């Protein structure tokens, strides 16, 4: 498995001209995802923390900063295409981080990157409900109720395992 270092990930974000505000979002997603991955691993869950680290940093490597219509898988495919040859596992992990793709996330790594993306808003860690509401307002998109429910079920599963409260996540993540 070929996984880029943190420095290589940051360099890739710069080389692909990912806007600074999106890079900030990626760094916050990274903090959330790595924290949760480490906690899950401590509880005996089989998870590759190194893969979560790289994939969470690079999950939006296909974003240009232009306001996109939602849902729009273009940045997912662009990111996948940019990474698939050199970092196929990272590419596969980020390919399913879209709002309507939680069902496609099969591994813990994919699920965590997808979930962490829904808890980060640039520099801020927010509740799942607040992030969903912000996405709906920003993109004038109505999130299907069944998809919302799947996110809340995943959140419950994660936090039941790590024995923390979801609302306290921001207090634990550095």
Provide an overview of this structure:
The structure is a single chain. It is globular, with a radius of gyration of 15 Å. It is mainly α. The mean pLDDT is 92. β1 and β2 form a beta hairpin. The protein contains 9 helices and 2 strands.
Low confidence ranges: none
Output the number of helix runs. Answer: 9
Radius of gyration: 15 Å
Strand content: under 5%
What spatial order of strands do you see in the largest sheet?
A: 1-2
Strand count, sense and barrel status of the largest sheet are: 2 strands, antiparallel
Work out the number of β strands: 2
Tell me, what is the CATH class? Mainly Alpha
Given helix and strand content, the structural type is mainly alpha
How many structural domains does the protein architecture include? 1
Q: What is the helix content?
A: 55-70%
Mean pLDDT: 92
Distance between the termini: 28 Å
Oligomer: single chain
SSE order, one letter for each helix or strand: HHHHHHEEHHH
CATH architecture: Orthogonal Bundle
CATH names the topology as: Hypothetical protein af1432
Outline type: globular
Describe this protein with a few key phrases.
mainly alpha; Hypothetical protein af1432; 9 helices; 2 strands; 2% strand; globular
Q: Summed up, what is this model?
A:
This protein is mostly helical and 174 residues long. It is built from nine helices and two strands; from the N terminus they run ααααααββααα.
List the helices and strands and how they pair.
Blueprint: H1 6-15, H2 20-42, H3 49-58, H4 74-83, H5 88-94, H6 108-117, E1 120-121, E2 124-125, H7 128-139, H8 145-162, H9 169-172
Helix pairs in contact: 1-3, 2-3, 2-6, 3-5, 3-6, 4-5
């Amino acid at each position: 498995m070929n996984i880029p270092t943190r420095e290589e990930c940051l360099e890739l974000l710069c080389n692909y001209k990912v806007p600074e505000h999106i890079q900030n979002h990626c760094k916050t997603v990274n903090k959330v995802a790595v924290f949760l991955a480490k906690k899950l691993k401590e509880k005996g869950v089989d998870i590759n923390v190194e893969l979560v680290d790289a994939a969470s940093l690079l999950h939006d490597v296909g974003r240009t900063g232009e306001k996109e219509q939602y849902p729009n898988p273009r940045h997912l495919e662009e990111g996948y295409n940019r990474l698939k040859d050199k970092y196929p596992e990272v590419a596969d992990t980020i390919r399913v981080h879209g709002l309507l793709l939680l069902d496609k996330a099969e591994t813990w790594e994919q699920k965590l990157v997808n979930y962490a993306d829904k808890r980060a808003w640039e520099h801020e860690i927010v509740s799942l409900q607040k992030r969903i509401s912000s996405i709906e307002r920003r993109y004038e998109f109505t999130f299907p109720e069944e998809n919302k429910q799947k996110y809340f079920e995943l959140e419950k599963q994660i936090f039941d395992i790590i024995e923390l409260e979801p609302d306290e996540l921001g207090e634990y993540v550095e």
